[in-house]
Amino acid sequence: MFPLDIRQSPEWLLYLEFLGWEKIETSNGVRAALMDNKLGKAIKVQRPEKVVSSDLEEIEKVALERKIPMIKVEPSLNQDLKILENAEYIPQGAPLSPPATIFIDLTLNPEDLWAQLSDSCRYSIRRAQREGAKTEFFTNPSKEKVAEFYKIHASTGKQKSFYIQGEDEIQKKVELFGDKAILGIVSTKEGAATGANLYLGYGKGIWFIHGGTTAEGRKTKNGYELYWQSFLYFKSLGYAWLDLEGVDDRRYPAFTKNWGGLSHFKERFGGTRVEFPSPYVKLFNPWLRKLSKYVNLQI
C-alpha cells in the first residue's frame, strides 16, 4: 500500500557512501550499508520492502568476512518478522529512522484532501492566504537556493534544539536526487521568506526531509499554507504518497522527545499514522549476545 522507503533508493545509498558507508546489495535488490572505520563497525538495513532468508544469509556472510559485530534491520510494514526471529534477530535497540510517521494519500482529489484537515488547520490556511502568503517550488534547487534554505533550517534547529546536519550534507542530497529534490519556500506578500521545506522523491512517494521557519514566520500561519500547497503540487507531479517523515512515538521517548510540537502540527493535516516495527539486531559478539538477554541494548 505505502511506497518503498526512500532509504532503499540508489540515491540514498550513494549519499551514505558520501558519509563513509559502504554499499551492500543482495541478489533480491535489498540495499544495506556497512560501516567499518574508526567511528564503528556495523551493518544497517533500513526499511526494505521485505527481507527473506537468502537476503539475510548474503548480508551475514559479508558481516562475518569483515568481522562486523552487529547487523541492524529496520523492518517495513510488509515484513514477516518471523523470518528475522528465526534467523536469531532480536527486537532491540534504538531506531535510526523515524519510528512513526504520517502518510498523505495524494491520489485523493483536492476536495477530499481538504476535508481531512482539522478545522483549525483549514482556518490557518485561509488566514495565511488572506494575508497574502506566496508559495514557490524549486525542482533541483541551485546551491544558492539550498544555502538560503539552510539558513532558515539551521536557525530553527538551534531554536528548537533539533539536530542539524551540515550544509554540505544537504547540498549532497540535492545533487544526488537531482530532479527528485524539491524545495518549497513560503513568503510574505512583500516577498520575505518565512519558511522552507526540502523534499526528496523515490518511485511514487515523496518525503519531507528537512524544514524550517523564521522567527517572523512563527508569528504567521504561513507554514500551514506551505504544507497545503505541497500536497497539491506533488499531486500534480503524479506522486501517490507524501511521507511527513516522523511524529512522536511513546515507544521511543528519548528518540522523539523534542518532536511534540511539530508532531501536533503534522497531525492537523489528517492522513494515516503508522508505527513501524521495532528495529531487529543480530549480534555476533558473544559478550553482547549474552548481555542482550538481560538488557535492552540501545545500539
Commentary on this structure:
The chain is α+β, with helices and mostly antiparallel strands and 299 residues long. It has 2 domains: 6-97 and 277-292, Aminopeptidase (3-Layer(aba) Sandwich), CATH 3.40.630; 100-275, Aminopeptidase (3-Layer(aba) Sandwich). It is built from 10 helices and 13 strands. The strands form 2 sheets. The protein has a 7-stranded mixed β-sheet. A 6-stranded mixed β-sheet has the order 1-2-3-4-13-5, sandwiched between helices. Strand 1 and strand 2 (31-37) form a beta hairpin. The longest helix is centred in the middle third of the chain and has 18 residues, at 143-160. The radius of gyration is 20 Å and the shape is elongated.
Descriptive keywords:
six-stranded mixed sheet; 25% strand; alpha+beta; seven-stranded mixed sheet; Aminopeptidase; 2 domains; 299 residues; elongated
The backbone outline, from C-alpha atoms, is elongated
How many beta-strand elements? Answer: 13
Kindly report the name of the CATH homologous superfamily of the largest domain: Gcn5-related N-acetyltransferase (GNAT)
Mean pLDDT: 94
CATH T-level fold name of the largest domain: Aminopeptidase
Q: Topology as H/E string?
A: HEEEHEHEEHHEHHEEEHEHEEH
Terminal residue distance: 30 Å
Task: Determine the structural class based on helices, strands and strand pairing.
Answer: alpha+beta
Query: What is the strand content?
Result: 15-25%
